Amino acid sequence: GFGPFGEHAVNASWIAVQELEKLGLRDDVDLHVYEVPVEYQTVQRLIPALWKKHSPQLVVHVGVSGMATTVTLEKCGHNVGYKGLDNCRFCPGSQCCVEGGPECIDSIIDMDTVCRRVSALGLDVTVTISKDAGRYLCDFTYYTSLYQSRGRSAFVHVPPLGKPYTAEQLGRALQAIIEEMLD
To answer: What is 12-182's CATH number?
Structure first.
C-alpha cells in the first residue's frame, strides 16, 4: 500500500493492506506488507530491494484511485508519461521508469480470470479490469516491479474509503484476489 499524498491524507490502499494483514492469507503463504512512500526515487530503490530481500513468488501492489468506484485489477504497467510531481515535488527528468525499457509490460497473471473467479464468490465488492494504472506513482511502481520480476507482479486499485467500500470490505476483497492470483 501507499502512504498519504495530495487529497488522500489517509491512503485507502494502506488501510486496505493493513486489513488484509489482519485477515492473513492461507497457511502456506508468507505475507509481507509495506507502506510505500509516494516518491519516485524511493520507489526506484525500494522495489528492487524488496524483490532481492524476499525473492517472492508474487508481489501485489495496492494503490488508491480517487476516480475508482470498484476494486480494479491492472493488467499492465507503462514506462513513459510520468509528469506529476511526487510528495518531494520531484518528477523524473526522463518522465520514464526504466530508460530503454519496453513501453508496456503485462502481468503474467490472467487478470480476466481472476476478476471472473473473484466476482463469482459473491463478495459485496465489484471487481473490474483496467489497462491504465494512471501514469503516477501507482503505474510507476507497477512497471518498476514488473520489470524487476519479468511480469510476476500485480496491481490492485481501490477506491477511497467509504466510496463505496469499508476497510473491512477492501481487506476481504484483497484476500480473495491474492489467493486467486496465487492459484
So the answer is: 3.40.630.20
